[in-house]
Write a structure and sequence with these properties.
CATH superfamily of the largest domain: Exo-inulinase, domain 1
Radius of gyration: 25 Å
CATH topology of the largest domain: Jelly Rolls
Bound molecules: zinc ion
Helix content: under 10%
Number of domains: 3
Largest sheet: 8 strands, antiparallel
CATH class of the largest domain: Mainly Beta
Distance between the termini: 29 Å
């Protein structure tokens, strides 16, 4: 059978946001036979959930967790009580709305809102969701560059498509999701557009939600100037911060781990890791001058804080970027070691401010041990080669699992009235250093051999598992790339 770029999958729609994403269906790669554990015959109700804030379409349960069964006949007359597996709404459904199917019931998590529900996944989808998009790789013969997507043969039967990460003679480390080459961080370039392809949006305040998620995206943490931030309609916020020495905080509440919905049906559940490489973007419109609006990213050892003055630029009121070193926590048993023992940083710039009653777009980008701040697309701060930034960090083996107390995102303001909207969070690709229980920290490549990784790192069979690729097996550079299972990313892109 021909190799596949995009494996067997089904479309799953989030009942909370309406976003549709792909979930891979495990299959035997040579025979194409589906390999889903626990697929069983079910009787399902095909009536939409009557709750207008919920969009779940297939239901397999009644009140009291009763599973509709093929063997027990449904009552001949009257409605059949159904309980929504997303919002718990109960209603009586028509008998004619039931049909038989083979399915798995699986807890799903909406990639943009974190809402969890039990989804009826039918591996043999009636809507024809199973697709193999490409069954023949197209590639250019030529010398591939790092980060190119490459096509190579690895055994006599199969061609593979992966991203080229390591070149002949190099030593490769994967630490905290990032790639280190010969002991130094290897940053993904913006041109050609590698990094932009690998950003993955995990939150967007402009996306309308049904309100089903138990955890609100943004909330004021307890105690600190509570009440200054107010949620308005359509995911917008306002801040009214009185004269106070402490800034008013708004903190992101949902997961910052490396969850990938595409892998929901793969048998093994990989460990989740916290992802500190994040981009926070928001649009602000200040109504008062003399105060400031800012943002904060905590990435393990370090907290970065940005403060931008509002109103006309004035002497003595500079824009500020600060890096604070967080001491390892003493209240937990195995505190994270400081990855980068390095001093704090304080930078200030005069002449930069947020104009009154005008919209400004701010991006705080923390990626691959580099911090950049953009104001209306222009870079105003950049920390790239600061001390302690670039070398392989001293890490335990393997790294600790997700610890959310070490990672957060905040918006903050002081002595200011302003509106904030279009708050978006993106995550960098996170290369896990373990695969199938194997630890692959530190790989020395021979001459003429390459190291390749899949973009779907938690479940990609790649160089972490089978080592390096001999140069003779390289076929060329792929012409298409894809990112599976993410609403914004499911598109094939031509590589120029
Ligand atoms: Zn519902
Ligand atoms: Zn990174």
């Amino acid at each position: 059978m021909a190799p596949t770029l995009f494996g067997m999958h089904v479309q799953v729609e989030s009942p909370n946001t309406g976003l549709s994403f792909e979930v891979g269906v495990p299959s035997n790669s040579s025979s194409g036979e589906l390999r889903i554990k626990d697929a069983k015959p079910y009787l399902v109700c095909t009536e939409d959930c009557p709750n207008e804030h919920c969009g779940l379409k297939l239901h397999a349960r009644g009140p009291g967790d009763v599973l509709f069964s093929r063997t027990k006949a449904l009552p001949a007359a009257g409605g059949i009580p159904v309980e929504c597996q997303s919002c718990k709404t109960r209603w009586n459904a028509a008998r004619s709305s039931f049909r038989q199917t083979t399915a798995v019931l699986k807890e799903m998590r909406c990639p943009l809102s974190g809402h969890r529900w039990e989804h009826v996944i039918e591996p043999l989808d009636h809507s024809g969701g199973n697709k193999i998009l490409v069954n023949k790789f197209a590639y250019d013969i030529g010398e591939p560059q790092r980060w190119d997507v490459i096509v190579f043969s690895f055994d006599q039967w199969k061609n593979y498509i992966k991203r080229l990460v390591g070149l002949p003679g190099e030593k490769i480390d994967l630490v905290y999701g990032d790639v280190y080459v010969n002991g130094r961080i290897e940053r993904k370039p913006e041109h050609p557009y590698i990094q932009s392809v690998l950003w993955k949006k995990i939150s967007d305040s402009s996306v309308r939600e049904g309100g089903l998620s138990r955890v609100k995206a943004w909330k004021e943490p307890k105690g600190v100037g509570v009440g200054a931030w107010q949620e308005l309609a359509d995911g917008r916020w306002s801040i009214t911060s009185a004269k106070s020495s402490e800034p008013a905080l708004l903190e992101y509440q949902r997961g910052l781990d490396n969850y990938i919905p595409y892998n929901s049906l793969s048998g093994n559940s990989p460990r989740h890791y916290s992802v500190g490489d994040m981009k926070l973007g928001f649009t602000v419109r200040p109504a008062t001058s003399g105060g400031w609006i800012g943002a904060e990213i905590r990435d393990g050892d370090w907290t970065f804080q940005l403060r931008l003055p509002t109103g006309k630029p004035a002497p003595g009121r500079p824009a500020v970027l600060e890096r604070v070193v967080n001491e390892p926590r003493s209240d937990i048993k195995n505190p994270l070691k400081l990855r980068h023992p390095a001093p704090g940083i304080f930078q200030e710039k005069e002449g930069i401010s947020l104009r009154l009653n005008e919209e400004s777009r701010i991006d705080l980008v923390n990626c691959d041990d580099c911090l950049i701040v953009r104001l209306n697309s222009e870079i105003i701060f950049s920390l790239k080669a600061a001390e302690g930034y670039v070398t392989v960090p001293d890490v335990g083996n393997p790294p600790p699992p997700a610890d959310h107390s070490q990672y957060y995102l905040r918006l903050l303001g002081n002595r200011v009235n302003a509106n904030v909207e279009e708050i978006e969070i993106w995550q960098d690709i996170y290369y896990t250093s373990d695969y199938g229980g194997r630890w692959s920290h530190g790989i020395q490549l021979e001459d003429e051999s390459f190291f390749a990784l899949g973009d779907n790192s938690p479940s990609s069979s790649d160089g972490r598992f089978w080592g390096s690729v001999p140069g003779d097996n390289m076929l060329g550079k792929a012409l298409l790339v894809f990112w599976p299972g993410w609403p914004d990313n499911f598109q094939l892109r031509f590589i120029r």
